Amino acid sequence: MADTLTPDLCVIGAGPAGLAIAEAARSLGLSVVIVDRGRLGGKALHAGAVPARALAAAAAHAHAMRNGTSFGITADTIKVNFRRVHDHVDAVISALSPARSAPHLEALGAQVVTGDAAFVDKRTLKAGETLVRAHRFVLATGSRPVIPAIPGLDAVPYFTTDTILDNTRKLTHLVIIGGGAMGLELAQSYARLGTEVTVVEPAGFLSEFDPELAAVALKRLEEEGVHLRPHTTVTAIHARSMGIGVAIHGADGEATLDVSHILVAVERVPDLDTLGLDKAGIRRRKDDVTRLDLTPGLRTTNPRVYAAGDIVGGPLSVGAAHEQARIVVDNALLAFVPRRHTDVPRVVSTDPEIAEVGYSERTARTKFGTSFRVLRVPYAENDKARARRETYGVAKLIVGQRGRLLGAGIAGAGAAELAALFSLALAARLDIARLSRFAAPYPSLAEIASRLGRATPRGDDPLTRALLTLNRLLG
After folding, report:
1. DSSP bridge pairs for 124
2. Cα 36 to Cα 113: distance, rounded to the nearest angstrom
3. Which range has the worst mean pLDDT, 232-236, 286-290, 420-424, 471-475?
4. d(Cα 354, Cα 236) in Å, to the nearest integer?
5. Potential cystine with 136: which of 39, 332, 423, 465 (Cβ 3.0-4.6 Å)?
6. Taking a C-beta distance cutoff of 8 angstroms, is the pair 449, 418 a contact?
7. Beta-carbon neighbour count of residue 121 at 10 Å?
8. Cα-Cα-Cα-Cα dihedral sign, residues 399, 405, 406, 411
9. In which order are the strands placed within the sheet that holds 261-264?
10. Alpha carbons within 13 A on the beta-carbon side of 343
11. What is the pTM of this model?
């Protein structure tokens, strides 16, 4: 006979969003059941941001050794052992796994159930031999890669973003189908590790980011030997006795690439198909059946069931996962406690990084017309960037009327950390005058933030103008 659990909250999926929600619920003293297929930590830990950053760290060491001559350092030979690079990536995952393990979660008071989850009715979920009748459910099952219908692709082996980081061999010529953030990050890492890399993208690269910032990162990738082919489609894959032929069509017409390996890095879709959504009364969007019909509070069409993570609209950063956790807990468990929305930085972890928070120049123009200003500071004007020869980059602020800070964008070293500072400023509703009084340590990249704050003449501040006028009147 199946066991029946009756917790306050059941979270389906143990990725960043699911775990953040479970921990938030436990902090309120609520009973929590976590259902997962068994690989706790989700894609972010096992095949996403964490292992990709570990691979990028290894690639950065190889890149630094090849390019040390400007610092007076020369390395005669660079040898990359892909098995040991993989071991490094695996060691990072292993070091972080205990904090996402079942014993750790159970020590926090959550109960972990392993098995495939599916609803049997609007109030009951079945996982293995266990039934869960929770007060509230949260779907956080993540996403899966879409495999494009390219003739011949099914006849050759290929990687996806879920499997490429398991690779332990050198890849001679890797073609990446899809030029999103993850595809470009992996392209740079493999190029730095000695692989010839070509990225094929049907649209433009990083079109969702500020073009000025995207251009900084894309230029660096091309300088490092990554072949970028925007507005190009793969029309066919040809299996060969040696290697693979990839037929492409772009602005220059038809061509065939001779490659050794393929990485499919196109879009991902929510992993929903096995959850029994119909039995739970959970509907999908009419305009996009791959996604759920959700309210702004992330509630599905079943009032007992909420959603978070990649299935809301991914890929999702860990920071965004915690913001979604707050929204779900407020609405599902606290009957909605109104709080101001928190801007979460959007990051592309290439070298140099790209990070945006709040309004970009493009979105500000749509929202505010011409009632905003753009302040810029190039990295070349920062002393620490010069000392480290990291002058390739720019930081910009979007400033509205009365000096209101609307957003920030950075392309350069440490962009993610600088974006965190601007995210805090936005959350605190600081204006540009307050930012100008930020005292950064010297030398540091953080000085870019204070330099941006000082880029607006103090005379533009109404209070400053009033004080100057008063001082003149008083003699």
Report:
1. 121
2. 7
3. 471-475
4. 33
5. 332
6. yes
7. 12
8. positive
9. 159-160, 261-264, 173-177, 196-201, 227-230
10. 25
11. 0.92
